[in-house]
Amino acid sequence: MANIVVVGAGVVALGTAMLLAGDGHHVTVLERDPEGPPSDPVSAWEGWQRPGLNQFRMAHAFLGGFRSVVDAELPTAARALQDAGALRVNFVRAMPPTMSGGWQDGDERFEWLTGRRVLVEAVLAAVASATPGVEVRRGVAVAGLCPGPPARAGIPHVTGVRTKDGEVIGADLVVDMTGRRSPLPGWLAEIGARRPDEVIEDTGFVYYGRHFTSANGAAPPMMGPGLMHWGTVSSLTLPADNGTWAVALVTGSADKALRPLREADRWEAVTRALPLVAHWLDGTPIDNGVQVMAGLEDRHRDFVVDGKPVATGVVAVADSWACSNPSAGRGASIGMLHARTLRDQLRTVGLDDPTAFAQAFWAATAETVEPWYHGTLTSDRHRLGEIEAGLRGEVYDPPDPQYQLEKAQRFAFGQDPECTRAEFDVRFVLHTPEEVYARPGLREKTLELGSGWRDAPPFGPTRAELLALVS
To answer: Helix 64-73 crosses helix 11-21 at what angle (to 10 degrees)?
Structure first.
């Protein structure tokens, strides 16, 4: 079995460490933030600080894709999350039978196991620390990679990491999970490796969010999808753990007129004007004002260029590999799918031939998670197009077949049981659109039932009303 170093100790990194340790590998997790979670994960919201994560207290969703991996592969973590108050919810059960067609075999796949990011990470940190084969070291900042003899001529090989304190930690494989702003390309350049091919652009979105709790421990009822678009603003409503929930408004980065949403009274005025969202404010805020997240980037890194890995002995997983706008809530699910892909390639290919492993992991990444990244990115670009058209007072209606199908899919939701489940399969990162619409007749049915999306009357405040609410 291998000695593996995982750089970063976020939710998916901890899950990755436990997956790999479950196969007998020894995994050392290195985290630059020195403070670990308190023993009581529920109290982590009040006192645990993670300065290395600007999204630590923002709204998070842990969808069916995340839950399916945790339940199947990490049952101890699943039980610990549930014991700590993480919410298990299945929206098919919550829907009227007239929309869902009633419960069907297989509907259990739509269940979430979700909570505030702070609680979920605190629980996984405790379970990982107690997992045989996992060592979590906090307050250890990695400064670079350690090179060794190449496994193949002309391709640098990584044999460990070097910390800022000068410590050298050897490894058969280094797994970079430092997130969106991973320094891995720079580390690779320092050892003479070619930089990965990288595509970067601003996501174009800004988030304004708050968390709430109720006196009776119940979350507000869902009256619509968790993510809803209202002209030039979107809303996120996400049930969490222990009677808490998150509400966020998402706008375009260029929409300066809505920047007063960072003020609590303006934020509340706009949220209360959204018909299916207003009741989510009927609770007690548990954060200090509106939390703002901006300056996010869409990023994709290709570590095999011209058929050759830029280096061996090191891989990037989850957001260190690729990341996009988080409003769809897919990040944790895509990350856990990627972690499982890594585990599976270590099983089937192994590290005896580092070049073969690097190429196999790259190919498996392209097959298992790359479609989710590109699909999310395309949807995000269209959403930005809608916002920008709304700012100009225009209608956005491009001829892109994917856009037309997504709009029809959302409009057909609730009209037909198969269309409803198709929307959940894609939204919850269970089956890609290509897999879903390979089902006989579904594409045609969706386009027919959803054909009226252009004629749907506006629902919610107009642009002029939005501006009045924030001014």
So the answer is: 30
